[in-house]
Amino acid sequence: MIRRATPADATRIRAITESAYSKYIPRIGRRPAPMDVDVDAQIAEGLLWVWDAGGILGAVVFYPEGEAMHLNALAVAPEATGQGLGRKLIAFVESEARRAGLSKVALYTNAKMTENLAMYPYLGFTEINRRTEDGFDRVFYEKPV
Fold this sequence. Notes:
- It is a single chain.
- By secondary structure, the protein is of the alpha+beta class.
- It has a single domain (2-106), classed as Gcn5-related N-acetyltransferase (GNAT) (Aminopeptidase, 3-Layer(aba) Sandwich).
- The chain contains five helices and seven strands.
- Strands 1-2-3-4-5-7-6 form a seven-stranded mixed β-sheet.
- The longest helix is centred in the middle third of the chain and has 15 residues, at 85-99.
- The relative contact order is 0.15.
- The mean pLDDT is 97.
């Protein structure tokens, strides 16, 4: 069910990302960074993967960076939220990190995405830093794999 995204998936991925992140605009005061990335470039670079169950329900962007697999963005379609799909996509990133011989998964989230601040520790991630980057207040996490 998880596969690399293709150019034909780009429109659906953009729609899922818009719906998943738009609720944060009022909290952050601007569009979250994942809403404005170049999806076509991420697909071309092989960084974007999708959960396809007869239709795309989720997307995740990740890549190796040093000793870590960096989980860059995760989005789940509104109709699939609450079904554990986000956890499954994160588990996939963790398995890809192990397969690549990396020691951890690293990620950051916005400090105003309070749901994520609760979810990542629940999934075994440890907060390692907080800082402002590109005008966003970010919270950084790592998890050994």
